[in-house]
Amino acid sequence: LRINDYVLIYLNITEIFIQVGRLFDFSLFFEKLFTFIEEMNRLLENLSSPVSQKELQNAERKFMSNYEKHSSWRNAAFEYACCLLRSGAADVRNGIRLFEDLLETNDNDDVDEVTNDQCIFCMAFGYYRIEEYATSLRIIKGLLEVKPHCKATLDLQRRVNYEVTLRRIKSALWVAGGISIGMLSVIRYLRP
Question: Per the UniProt record, which residue ranges are transmembrane (predicted)?
């Protein structure tokens, strides 16, 4: 299975739990939903700020030591992957891979386990950072199917759509400029 298959499976399972939650306890469901929305907003603000080299090294050191001890390594991996997303393009790709690994190795041994929604959201942000907008929008669409009113996900979708529109406008301007230059050269050539 590819990572997109894992994302779709997870989102379908989450939707089933939401439907079951609607049958039994609305207050608990809405409490969890609002908590999720607040967490995602904080996460988006955190991911939008640049990372210092010292902070990146500290997160890497913490991840490596926790991974070797097998203690709370998912939280350390999540923090390290978030730092990687806030860094350069090569590091962003490594961060995305780390989030994919977190999704694939989902175990319930960790007490402070990071949610899969957060990992999927961060993957969408990572693809946005490395300008793979189609992949980012596909992941965002899946998240919005499960939680359609999540402000952070909607904000990320607006950012990605803005960049896609900007890229299309730039492409159109380049084409128009090329056509203009071609027309001017033809006119100049045909002049006696």
Answer: 171-190
